[in-house]
Amino acid sequence: MTKIRIDLPLDVEKIANLKSGDSVLISGTIYTARDAAHKRMIEELNEGKTLPVDLKNQTIYYAGPCPPKPGDIIGSIGPTTSGRMDAYAPILLDKGLKGMIGKGYRDKTVIDAIIKNKAVYFGAVGGAGALLKESVVSVEIVAYEDLGTEAIRKLEVKDFPAVVIIDSKGNNLYETEKSKYRKSTEDRNWG
Amino acid sequence: MVRINVEKIKQAVYDSFLEINCKLSQDVTEAICTGFESEESPIGRAIFDDILKNNSIALEKQIPICQDTGMAVVWVKAGQEVALVGGNLNDAINQGVREAYKDGYFRNSIVSDPLNRINTKDNTPAVIHYEIVEGNHVEIIVSAKGFGSENMSSLKMLKPSDGLKGVIDFIVETVTNAGPNACPPFFIGVGIGGTMEKCALMSKQALMRDVSKRNADPFYEKLEKDLIKTLNGLGIGPMGLGGTSTVLGLNIEVFPTHIAGLPVAVNMCCHVNRHAKTVIRGEIYD
Questions:
Q1: Which DSSP state fits A85?
Q2: pLDDT of A169-184, one tens digit each?
Q3: According to CATH, what is the number of the domain A10-180?
Q4: How far apart are CA A30 and CA B284, in angstroms?
């Protein structure tokens, strides 16, 4: 499969060109954030504070890495299940977030917010943390260091492999591909 | 009588966790390769390719296959002739986990309280199950259980009238709901019967079994095979992006149950099914 190279940050034009099912290689800056960082970001917004990172046109990677071995900059870092961030994602999309990288279903509120804000949801291969680590060029903790693996890290990535799952029009690869391989269960003979 | 120093058990726990987080067992690796060969979807094949590359990198560099190095689950099957000496067994097991996760540069993923969520920073405590069995040895089974898949596991107390169809429908429903969230292709542990907690434990134990070996009872052997076929027909495929390989292995464990009940538990596991068994022989003493 041909892979499309994307340089971050995303913009309206780049996002409009991305279609559900595209295989991409992402390069540029991404921010890691998962459960605890999302919870804290939203709590701080509710308290009237500003986000620790300006998310305008930015991309969040739902991930919490392993610690680096000596000589490494980061440990294995694959995607975590995105659905746990569904309660928070629409708020961040309204704040300018354009890309999310994770794995698994998104709920309707997130898909609606993706369409409304012209954003995009990428899937990375879950359980492939050792492979995905290879594309991380630099790492810096930029917020919530006390959260350990759940701190917000600014990563520079080079050719990070992903697939466009939900594009800015709301096309959802989880729905379109599954039906192609679904076999009838009519022939089940369970007595 | 024979005895075993708990230090040996700590060492077995330590060695096992260091190994399983970076290297899959032979049966799991073979199941992944078989799944790859049969996969019809181009996206699915590309994902299998990434998974195999990932596992080679992890093995070669001795880094975790997946960043979710899991919650440590330890099964101790202690022979009833064995005296365990040299300290507190629970502490020894947790120390083995603590040292392995530190020395292996594995992620600490455990919070001390489910609601007041503070990371314990050493991946302890482990979930420890004890069983007393015949004999003069101790068997230690360990698993590093990732929560992407654990979260999509499910248990239901069916009615006896729901029968086999009810059991199958519940398994199909659980796997369908798990979809991409639980990182397919899957390994699936199923418990049927017992009480609620026995059923849940069996579903976890089923995941510890060699995935290439079917249930010894011909009825359940056939059910395992039929379920694998049916679940692969769901179309979920690798990472839920469509395909013919959704399930790489499915083991069923059963136990007698009550006249009023039909418990079923489905423990989902991603393709990174990490488990190992060590047998420690006791030393004879007077």
A1: G
A2: 999 999 998 889 998 6
A3: 3.20.130.10
A4: 59
